[in-house]
Design a protein that fits this description.
Layout: H1 8-14, H2 20-40, H3 45-52, H4 61-72, H5 74-84, H6 86-105, H7 110-138, H8 142-173, H9 178-181, H10 183-193, H11 211-234, H12 239-259, H13 275-305, H14 310-315, H15 318-359, H16 368-395, H17 403-435, H18 440-451, H19 453-469, H20 475-486, H21 488-505
Length: 506
């Protein structure tokens, strides 16, 4: 018996929302702001320390308080988005981030600044978890989703690089407080923009959030990120760092055990049974370790070896943003349907590793145009080419009601990779420089070139993992997905099967 014709309202709901591209602008603006805020204060740290009377040992807490809260709360933020609704959580995150940024910019003491930065990090976790989930659920067409994720990711990458430039400009012209206050108009503009974005149609989860899992998972991530952030100052063998890393490992082990037994786990094990998703998470962590290590290398090299000003050093980062954006939006979106995530991730990670290898060849007589710039372009091509595949592999084939936790998981992997990678880079660079006998410039360069082998090795290990775990993808996979898009009845059947499978698993 033929199926009855769909009602006009049902057909209207099946059509792509005409406001979806406006939604991408709003979501991308928030992503730009989140990652911009993670680097914009770096240039302003000396000015903050002088005005607020910080001790040298306290200065890193301007960055640490933000990253610890951000990385530690991502999993919980993802599940909150799945329960409360992604759009509602996104709007709340924007409002909270604006208020926390205003408080940080007006902080009268160092302690008040640290507290406000931690609150910023907590709301950034809500934004990061809900924003990527909204991109995945708003763009139902696979071809459009690839473009949207590419633009979204490119804006995030641009934010990290532009933060250094903007931080230098604002600190030099207006003072360090504007490095924090600049978030207020950005967040409020994005919040106003949510009034015209499509409503969140994705099914919400019901029931209670796994509080035990939240304590174990968020506690484990927080302590690991904290331990890594303290390693540079205290050393990897110091009791505080070793204790934090061991405590984090114990908590995360307990979290993994509990997730297999909880009635409604915070991170459903079914999401990690997909080998391609696991490979994407490993690749995302390694790529973030490479990106942050490259940023540290470039900052130190330009200012210490080439004697560039902070502002000029910030401008030296611009090619990373431009090339990464162009590669992700132009090359990645065209090659991914033909080559699949496995080839794109593996090739992109290898190309990014080649860019880091070029940095090991620098010497005190190297120049930016002839030696540094080619390395940045090579790394950025690899980063832009692999990013879209990583995001696609991590968020595809996820039931809509799990989109928040899936987005939070890939963000957590990136935060963990970035925290561990940058901490190891700093420690190795400092140790190698101290052991080198020569001029200050030569010692600093020796430290950088020795330390960059760590993220380079991580990228190659991740490339092997993606080649092994990601599986074979072909154009037929994407063609089939587009066939489903054009067949609403088949989509409905699949969604019904997903819901039935979830209920059966419970």
């Amino acid at each position: 018996m033929p199926a009855p014709p769909s009602s006009p309202s049902t057909q209207q709901e099946q059509l792509p929302d005409p406001r979806r591209w406006w939604a991408l602008c709003v979501l991308g603006l928030a992503q730009l702001m989140i990652l911009l805020d993670s680097t914009i204060v770096n240039v302003a740290l000396p000015s903050m320390q002088t005005e607020l009377g910080m001790a040298d040992g306290d200065r890193p807490w301007v960055v640490t308080s933000y990253t610890v809260a951000f990385g530690g709360l991502l999993l919980l933020a993802g599940r909150i988005a799945d329960h409360a609704g992604r759009k509602r959580v996104f709007a709340s995150g924007l409002l909270g981030f604006a208020v926390a940024s205003a408080a940080a910019g007006a902080a009268p003491t160092a302690q008040a600044l640290f507290a406000a930065r931690a609150v910023q990090g907590a709301f950034a976790a809500l934004l990061a978890a809900s924003a990527l989930a909204l991109v995945a659920t708003t763009f139902t067409d696979l071809r459009e989703r690839r473009k949207a994720i590419a633009v979204f990711g490119a804006l995030g990458g641009a934010g990290a690089s532009l933060g250094v430039v903007l931080g230098g400009l604002l600190t030099q012209w207006f003072g360090w407080r504007w490095c924090l206050l600049v978030n207020v108009p950005i967040a409020l503009a994005a919040l106003l923009g949510t009034l015209w974005t499509p409503r969140d149609r994705a099914r919400r989860l019901t029931g209670r959030i796994d509080l035990a899992g939240a304590v174990l998972g968020c506690g484990g991530l927080t302590t690991v990120v904290y331990g890594c952030s303290q390693a540079e100052a205290q050393g990897w063998t110091s009791p505080g760092v070793v204790g934090a890393l061991l405590a984090g490992a114990v908590l995360l082990t307990a979290f993994a055990w509990w997730q297999t037994r909880a009635a409604a786990p915070l991170l459903p094990p079914r999401l990690l049974r997909d080998r391609r998703r696991v490979a994407s998470l490993l690749a995302g962590g390694a790529l973030m370790a490479g990106q942050l290590s490259l940023s540290l290398y470039l900052t130190y090299y330009l200012q210490t070896v080439l004697d560039w000003s902070a502002l000029a050093s910030g401008l030296g980062f611009l090619p990373i943003s431009l090339v990464t954006t162009a590669t992700a939006t132009q090359l990645g979106t065209r090659l991914l349907p033909r080559l699949g995530p496995r080839v794109m991730m593996t090739a992109g990670l290898c190309i990014a590793a080649c860019g880091l290898f070029q940095l090991t060849l620098l010497d005190p007589d190297s120049t930016y145009a002839a030696n540094v710039l080619p390395a940045l372009i090579t790394f950025s091509i690899g980063q832009g080419g692999s990013f879209l595949a990583i995001m696609t592999g991590a968020t595809s084939d996820v039931p809509a009601q799990d989109s928040g936790i899936a987005s939070a998981t890939v963000n957590s992997a990136q935060q963990m990779g970035g925290s561990i990678g940058s901490a190891v880079f700093n420690t190795v660079a400092a140790s190698a420089a101290a052991a080198f006998h020569g001029s200050r410039r030569a010692a600093a360069l020796h430290g950088f070139t020795s330390a960059i082998w760590i993220p380079l090795a991580l990228l190659l290990v991740a490339a092997v993992a993606t080649a092994t775990l990601a599986g074979h993808q072909s154009t037929r996979v994407y063609a089939h997905a587009n066939t489903l898009r054009r067949n609403p009845e088949e989509v409905a059947k699949r969604q019904g099967a997903e819901v039935a499978a979830l209920e059966a698993e419970k």
